[in-house]
């Protein structure tokens, strides 16, 4: 994190920070439910399901990094690790589990 | 397009906007008349409509289409009432625009005075009054009124900038500088104000006495540096930096102090910049100006680009001589 | 362009996913004990990849968070100038009579240009 002095010299645009966080969290919540649907159809159980979710999240992170941030992650994110690579993993996990169990039950009724 | 960019648009754009007025008025003939809001039947009222009316009013006044302007104004009065402060300001603007001679303008001015006597904190009308005083070249009165306005609302940065401009027109440079510094207290990241402050300091250095010239120039260079630090490829900032550093190099070209003395001195005043630093700034500004003029596309301001090219040509000619 | 291709990808992915879902349901209704066939698994994973790429392509562009980059971009936009341009235009203090005169002069210039 930059210090207060660095922030005074080259300030951040709060509006852009909020916009970027919003865009990322939109993508994250949509894809998390999607992974739930997929792992429900595939009939994954316990650890393999969570592993599938983590792999999928990593894949989406790479997509965001290459397509949206064009490889220049420092230009768009303050804390690169927490906002781009690991952001919203826990929140997304909730919706993942929800759709996972739902579709697992639907397909194998 | 925001409301403020209206003033920078070209005459042709203003004309095309004002030609849309009649159509717009017809299309929105029903809005604002019904005061009862019926859910699902009437559209929710949006502020865009009223901002558009304000925009059309200004363009129509500019293009001299007074009738359409009056229609817009009437719409606004119908909606917000004749006692709304903003509407009162716009009404004054309309009256100023259609006034035929100085006597009519005096009457408008009197009207402003009457309004302000009743309601001293009516900012839009107070601003109109100041603008009218300035337009009638009664600058000292305008300055007095503006300082009074600023006493009651010291964070109005628009007013501070206007006051600085007024002081500048009277060649009162220290006051103009102070006003812009006041703006920067409220908006410390406003890169264009940093550049403007640099410009005022540069002008004051060119017109002031010899003793303070060096310090003013150094301060101007610092302001220009900050403006380009806050905004990538800022043509105005680099232009000012180039002008200022050129001047500094030509006034004392053989300063022998080393670069080690840049640190702040204890009495709070910043030291004069060492020549080596100035030379490097000058090189950087020249490089950047050349780059910007080379890569600029048609959307940029052509006049600015040409001025920058002129400056570069002049300085290379001087070097060759 | 990006938005149309993203919409196409999302639509394709959704159809594939729905098909895979239905296939898996039918399969489990017929052969209770057997695992999922390979083609349905591949279809599912492929549809997820399509939808993900489509979503990211169709997302709004990110904005630069550094003030310097953001301001430079605002300055170069046509008609832009950023949030502080209003301080130089000063709409509240506009001298409308000068503006009118400017415009009248401009119209006259245009007229004489056309004639000459």
Automatic annotation (TrEMBL), chain A:
UniProt source species: Letharia columbiana
Keyword check for Transmembrane helix: yes
Subcellular location: Endoplasmic reticulum membrane
Stated name of the protein: ER membrane protein complex subunit 6
Entry superkingdom: Eukaryota
Lineage, opening ranks: Eukaryota, Fungi, Dikarya, Ascomycota, Pezizomycotina
A GO BP entry: protein folding in endoplasmic reticulum
UniProt family annotation: Belongs to the EMC6 family.
Main location: endoplasmic reticulum
Keyword vocabulary terms for this entry: Endoplasmic reticulum, Membrane, Transmembrane, Transmembrane helix
Residue spans crossing the bilayer: 50-68, 89-107
GO cellular component: EMC complex
InterPro entries linked: Emc6, EMC6-like
Membrane protein topology class: Multi-pass membrane protein
TrEMBL record, chain B:
Domain EMC2 TPR-like, chain residue ranges per copy: 111-201
Lineage: superkingdom: Eukaryota
Single GO cellular component term: EMC complex
PROSITE patterns: TPR (PS50005)
Cited Gene3D superfamilies: Tetratricopeptide repeat domain
InterPro entries: EMC2-like, TPR-like_helical_dom_sf, TPR_EMC2, TPR_rpt
Family: Belongs to the EMC2 family.
Function: Part of the endoplasmic reticulum membrane protein complex (EMC) that enables the energy-independent insertion into endoplasmic reticulum membranes of newly synthesized membrane proteins.
Name of the protein: ER membrane protein complex subunit 2
Highest classification ranks of the organism: Eukaryota, Fungi, Dikarya, Ascomycota, Pezizomycotina
UniProtKB/TrEMBL annotation, chain C:
GO biological process: protein folding in endoplasmic reticulum
Domain of life, per lineage: Eukaryota
Membrane topology field: Multi-pass membrane protein
Principal subcellular localisation of the protein: membrane
Keywords, ordered alphabetically: Membrane, Transmembrane, Transmembrane helix
GO (cellular component) term, any one: EMC complex
The keyword Transmembrane appears for this protein: yes
Matches recorded under InterPro entries: EMC_subunit, MMgT
Coiled-coil annotated spans: none
Cellular compartments annotated: Endomembrane system
One Pfam family matching this protein: MMgT
Entries under PANTHER family matching the protein: ER MEMBRANE PROTEIN COMPLEX SUBUNIT 5
Family the UniProt entry places it in: Belongs to the membrane magnesium transporter (TC 1.A.67) family.
UniProt name for this protein: Magnesium transporter
Organism: Letharia columbiana
